[in-house]
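tool_call: predict_structure(chain=1)
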Amino acid sequence: MKVNVTYTGPNPQRVHYVLGFIQGHPYMPRHVRLAMNDWTDADIRIDYTPRDIPLEPNEYFLPAQEMFFAREKRSQQCVANQYTFANRKLYSVEQLEGPSSAFIIERKFGFDILETIFFHLTRLEEYYCDASLKDQWDMMEEKHHFLIRNKLYQQPIVDNLVEALLLAIGLEPVTFKSKLTITHDIDVLRKFPNVKKSLRAIAGDVKRNKSLRSFSKIYNLYKETKSGKVKDPYDTFERLFVKDEHRKIVYFMAGGTSANDEKYDIKSKEFKSIYELAISRGYQIGLHPSYNSYDDYVMITDERNKLQNIIGGKVRTSRQHFLRFAFDETITALSDSGIYEDSTLGYQHRIGYRCGTAFTYLLYDLRRDRNSRVSETPMIVMDGALLDECDGDMARASILLFQFVDKYLQNSHMTINFHNTIFDPTRYDTESMWRMYDSIIEKYN
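tool_result:
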């Protein structure tokens, strides 16, 4: 079956990009082919134009908003209008606020689905973000994100639109059991590697706990670790690296020039034992590029080469340290350094869908205005972000996590990120954290 989209407006490469995303979406039936401006033998036709037109049988009208695909490449202040379809609530990205409306009436869609998808996948608002809205890491503060402002970040907005579009034109979306990708960012190998770093760790714990009373507990943990009575609090790898048959990736650092980089020796026996354990458990080895690498392909390339030389294999996937990602620089830096898959685009202080989708997709290079060579596997749940959203309350975090996960056990994908350091007893209740980690994996088995 062929579905043809007729479009004669500007920037057709952007429309091609969105249609390519829909074509490759897990919901898309495999017997269906999306085409653009190829009317020959089309079973379903979609006219994508700003002008309402009379429709023939098997023809649909999709209103072209001409905001993100227009010739003038600029950001807009946008609103999320609600549309309803078959007991579903869908949300647009539009310039003007309007009342709740029907998603489709008599084969005419209520808003520009394609531009809405493009807005979310490309993180257009972050690309054009004004400096006044950025945080200390030179990224758009989360409170200004469109999805967060509209309290929509815990919904896969884009995936919902793809499903509704298919149903609206008479196609049955593919259904399946959700898959899980388990990932770990390894920022630090040990909490107490030497005296200097141990003192810094102890001081940091006291400051974070805002209580001198915590000093005794932390210091006793340090003494027990050094005496060999207990393992270092960050040495959680034996339990962290699971054997379950899911996709699994561990991201290691291999350098850095910033105080935000906790450097460790990847040539050490200690590191060798950790990455060999990961490989034996079926993990893919990825790079955790350092803090200042986000716009520097030379730095990423150097760190990638160092890690490859140690593990004796190719490294093709990465996640930026501090989730530091500049949409005008990082995509190019990753591509030029030989990284073909990224998993940075999640939230720092909450769980949810920063890109509107749960699934891996191809990133769009807005600076060059074309498809990139880097795919994105969005991070949906990160341990620290979950706890931040719940103000460190473990009970609240557990409830939020499982309410969220239970919604998406079908027809979705969950990428989680648990650090080896999150199980530190001086920070959180260790067993409660392990229960959350173990339980989320069990739900996907």
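agent: The chain has three domains: 2-168, 179-189+234-442, 196-229. Proceeding to next step.
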